[in-house]
């Protein structure tokens, strides 16, 4: 069985944000699946998805600090700056982390580890709302 749903995430400030609850709520709306996989595809090139620590918010703060240090907005050789100094750094961060995740489904729910949560990496100062396409395959 295949099912698909497009969800719209509200606009968030720059940084890393837990969106696990929003994804879980969307998965619950699918027809019951005992076992399967859900593919998440963020339909943007200046944000990212990743799976990591869900309990301590300083992990997300450290992610933001590290990526901002590793890919500085004042890099003089960037040419793609039409939408501002955060434009090209956002594309690079998106490519490094990726825009998709494949996650297991067990008994109709995400089967994540105890301390795992889904992050939206918002890499723009004003990125706006984001869309995620969920594609579920299972039985």
TrEMBL record:
It comes from the Bacteria. InterPro entries: UPF0047_YjbQ-like, YjbQ-like_sf. Signal peptide: none annotated. Pfam families: YjbQ. Belongs to the UPF0047 family. PANTHER family: UNCHARACTERIZED PROTEIN YJBQ-RELATED (PTHR30615), UPF0047 PROTEIN C4A8.02C (PTHR30615:SF8). This is Secondary thiamine-phosphate synthase enzyme.
